[in-house]
Structure formats: structure tokens, C-alpha cells
TrEMBL record, chains A, B:
InterPro entries per record: Gfo/Idh/MocA-like_OxRdtase_N (IPR000683), Gfo/Idh/MocA_oxidrdct_glycsds (IPR050463), NAD(P)-bd_dom_sf (IPR036291)
Domain of life of the organism encoding this protein: Bacteria
GO molecular function, a single term: nucleotide binding
Coiled-coil annotated spans: none
Name the record gives this protein: D-galactose 1-dehydrogenase
Residue ranges occupied by any Gfo/Idh/MocA-like oxidoreductase N-terminal domain in the UniProt entry: 4-114
Length: 307, 307
């Protein structure tokens, strides 16, 4: 099979840092075009709109959409309508309804849609899933606390309505939780909104499973000093901790698994796999939990936030 | 086939007004038990909890769950786990995730789950669907404005987080919209919260379809005087209005269809149908739009509301 001829839409930091090296090192893909208002990639034909790109380069087989979620639907609709496979950066859309619509469109067009969740491909996630599948889980605690000023300096879109606020990193935790724990649903939530912003800066979430497993998640964007991206499970086989966003796994304080980070290379391997198998991979459960939290959550107002 | 032996959980106003007469007039059902903290039905064995009822009356084939949505999951989980068919009043749950979970459980147990949307069975809804399917729709406008003091006097739960506020009636409009219009998704929303309440009193919603059809919805709970539950569509065949919550259909001001209201009798006919056919009927799209509106919507604070 010749390489999948790929185009990227929305050339920004995540594309330079992650997508480009992963594509360059994967023989299943050949980058043949980009569309972006400002960004370009050396040696690759560049367009400023997806329409212009799709018109000018009919050889494109697939597109990766990497712009902010508020603008993703329209590009995905155009690409799928033109019969292209689509890779969606996380989250797959600004609403659940548009993702459902894209899923139907991909099916109708006979192309693959990939709603990617990069944190699910963190090195120790599968080891955690295997560990938890072989024991009885008593409870779980998710702690996702980071410094927004460090990770998202002056990114206005994350604070706009629909920008998700602290759920932008929190959805990474939820993408792991929905992969390694049984199905959960929210029973209560508190969202803290800075009085000058339309998105929450912190969230406290209580979930349980049908069988009653309690899961507590804390997301906070005001964490200075040590950053925390940990999932702790109390089990009959001891305390399991999935550390640093899924990088390492420890049980009862002992390191059990660690491997180099390779999330985006894994995502592109998965994308090639579903394109070849002629299927889609769209699990909306992390975004569904976020929507549920906004619907069910109690709003609390806290100090204004300035970058 | 002998009648489906039915139990009702949560005996309140909607049960007395709608469920009981519909069940009494439908030979497919026989009401054999109720569970409710306070309410009972004359001549029917009454229990105070669903657990006690399921234990005491193993002959129950199906249960209708009519308590507020915040308490519905647990009862549905118990009923489905016990192998009973389940009828969920609208909305089917407090979160989308719990509804997805119940749908999987019903499938695993080989029983039918019915997420009922009573407004979809309003008399003129099918006539509107047929009219719209045979013309080109240019735009649509949904006006759902009622007086909360009249319709929900002193109902505290509707104002709590998760109680949905003005989306409690608004979801009825959305259940019709998602049945008669092409798939839509939200592009922008403003939710107005009374400063002393956790749920919105008004919502302004802009949707569009993949093909670009614009749909505007206005929900307001502060309407005194004339109440409005109308869906207006501008089409190539003229202006269609679905009036009074789906009761009547007019085109260019001329009444085209009108019939007596029979929503709940239709719901129970549908429930019997899916139980006999051994399938479920769970369309979450109305609740998904509500969750999307909470996730995407801009919050605005308005005057405190007192009953």
C-alpha cells in the first residue's frame, strides 16, 4: 500500500511539536499539503483555507484537523464531504451533537473518522488497564492540577464559552479514566469560574459506576510549583498510581512500568490502522463527561483571573 | 399475549394526570404495583421503595420511572438488573453518560429501554415532519415561552443544578425539532441564570445543520399572558407553524391539521410495541443538545427569581 497522502489544517505549536515528527517517522504517511491562516511547513505546499487546499490538491487522502475545537466542525464537514479520512485533535468538537453528525457523515461517505485522545496512548496506560482488570477496585482519585499561566499563556480561546477552561487538560484525564475504569457517570460537580471568564478554572467531580465504584476527580489550573497529573486507585492488590499523565505506573509505591513517551506516534499508527481497516474510531465518552459536568455542575464564582 | 404487568415508581402529578388514564385505557398493560415515598394508587399494592416492590412482586414485567431525573438512574439500574423493561419519563437522566450506561445494561439483559419524549407524540408533529420532508427549508425559529410560576409553582428541584431550569420545557421543543428537522448542532448560546438560582430561566440558542440550515430557539420562563410553544419554518412551500406544542399545524396562516391531544396514550402504545419487538428506543439527541448548550453557552446573570 502506498503512503496515505496527508494534509494538516491549523499549523500551530502542537503540530510542530508533535504531529510533524510523528508523521515524518511513519512510512504510512506522506505530508503533501497544509492549510493555515499563518503557519506553514518547510517544503510543503501551503494554503490559507481548507477549501483552497482541497480544490488545488485532489490527491489528498486524509486530513488532520488541529485548530481550536470551535472551528473544527466546518473543516471536518468539508473534508468528509470531499471523501477524505479525518483525524480530529482532541476534543473532537465544540459540541457532542456535531461529533455525532460527523460520525454519520463519515459512515455515509465510507471514510474513516478518528477522534484522537492522545493521553490514552501514554506509555503506562495499558499496563494500568491490565492491572485494574485483574483486581477489585475500591475507589479511584484523579488529581489533575497544573499552572495555566505556564501551559497556556495568553491563549484567549481557552477562556471563551466553549473553550472548556480547565477541562482542556482535564479531558486528558477523562480520556484515560474512560479507558481503564468501568463506565462511570457523574453524580455531582462543582465548577469554579473566575468572575471575569466564561470557562471554569477548577472542577471537582464525583462519579460512580453502576455497581457503585466511587471516583473523585479534581481539576485545577491554579497549581504553581509541582504539577500533578495522577490517577490513584485503591484496589485489593494495593494502591496503584498512574503518574505524570500516564507515563509511569507504581503499585504500593514501587515502580512497575515506565517507558519513553510516544503518544503522537501511537496516534498516527492508530490512524493508519483504522484507514486500512476501513472503520472509524470515535469514542465521545470523555467529552460526554465534560458536557455532563457543565449540565449537572453547580457554578461557583472565584477571583478574577489575569494572565 | 397477556398484558404487560406494569409498576410505576414516583407517583406524582404527571402520573395521576397522564400515566394512569393511559394505562387504564390500554389493554396491553396491567398496573400491578407502585413504589413512591408518598403517593399511592387506589386498589394497587403500594410500596415505599423500588427494592421492596421488586422483592415483593416478582411478576412485574416492566416499570415506568416518573421521579425527578436526578434520582432516576439508580431505580433504572435496579429494574434493568432485575430483568424488567423500563419506561423513562423525559428527560431520560441527569447525565448523558448514565443514559448510555442504561442502554448498554438493557442490551446485556435482553430487555427494552424506552426514553420517552411525550411532545414528539403531539397530534400535528407527524404532519409537520411530512410537510418539511417534501419542501426545502430556509430557516426555522422555535419560540417556547411560558410562565414558570404557573406551570412549576414552588418546585425547588427544577432550580437546582441538574434540574435543567428552562430546558425542562425547552427539551420538549428540542424533542420535536430533532424529529422533524435535519440533524443540527449548536453554534452559539446564551443562558440567563437568576442570580439566586443554579439553573437558567431563559436560553437563546443558535443551531445549524451540516448543510447550513439556520435554526434559532428562544426559551423563556418569564412569559406572562399568552404562552408560546411554536415552531415556525420558512420553506419554499410557505411558512409552516407548528402551534401550541405540536397540537396544530398551519401553512401560510391556514390551519392544515388539528387533532385531539393524546401524547401519553401514544407513548404507552409505543412502549408496548418495543417490548413486543424486543428492542429499545433511546434517542438522546434532545438531552445532548441541552448538555451542549450548558457546555458551549455563555452565562449571563439576571434578576433573582422568587416563586
Amino acid at each position: 500500500m502506498s503512503p496515505i497522502k496527508l494534509a494538516i489544517v491549523g499549523v500551530g505549536k502542537i503540530v510542530r511539536d508533535q504531529h510533524l515528527p510523528s508523521i515524518a517517522n511513519n512510512p504510512d504517511f506522506e505530508l503533501i499539503a497544509t492549510a493555515s491562516r499563518h503557519g506553514t511547513v518547510d517544503g510543503v505546499p501551503a494554503f490559507t483555507t481548507i477549501e483552497a487546499m482541497l480544490d488545488a490538491v485532489p490527491a489528498i487522502d486524509a486530513v488532520s484537523l488541529c485548530m481550536p475545537p470551535q472551528y473544527r466542525y466546518e473543516a471536518a464537514y468539508k473534508a468528509l464531504s470531499a471523501g477524505k479520512h479525518v483525524f480530529l485533535e482532541k476534543p473532537p468538537g465544540a459540541t457532542l451533537s456535531e461529533v455525532a453528525d460527523l460520525e454519520n457523515l463519515a459512515k455515509a461517505k465510507g471514510v474513516s473518522l478518528f477522534a484522537s485522545w492522545h493521553s490514552r496512548y501514554a506509555p503506562a496506560v495499558e499496563a494500568a488497564k491490565t492491572f485494574l482488570a485483574n483486581t477489585n477496585i475500591q475507589s479511584a482519585h484523579v488529581i489533575w492540577k497544573e499552572d495555566v499561566r505556564h501551559w497556556h499563556p495568553n491563549q484567549e480561546w481557552i477562556w471563551q464559552a466553549g473553550g472548556l477552561g480547565v477541562f482542556d487538560p482535564g479531558i486528558n484525564a477523562l480520556s484515560i479514566v474512560t479507558h481503564i475504569l468501568p463506565p462511570l457517570f457523574l453524580t455531582g460537580a462543582t465548577l469554579e469560574f473566575p468572575e471575569n471568564r466564561d470557562s471554569p478554572i477548577a472542577a471537582d467531580l464525583h462519579f460512580k459506576s453502576g455497581a457503585g465504584l466511587p471516583v473523585h476527580a479534581e481539576f485545577d489550573w491554579r497549581q504553581t510549583g509541582k504539577q500533578s497529573w495522577d490517577i490513584v486507585a485503591e484496589t485489593d492488590a494495593g494502591q496503584m498510581v498512574l503518574i505524570e499523565g500516564g507515563s509511569k505506573l507504581s503499585v504500593n509505591g514501587e515502580l512497575k512500568f515506565s517507558a519513553p513517551e510516544a503518544e503522537y506516534p501511537s496516534l498516527y499508527r492508530r490512524f493508519a490502522e483504522i484507514v486500512k481497516a476501513d472503520v472509524s474510531d470515535v469514542d465521545v465518552s470523555p467529552l460526554r463527561h465534560v458536557a455532563d459536568a457543565f449540565m449537572l455542575g453547580k457554578r461557583k464564582f472565584v477571583d478574577a483571573f489575569y494572565d
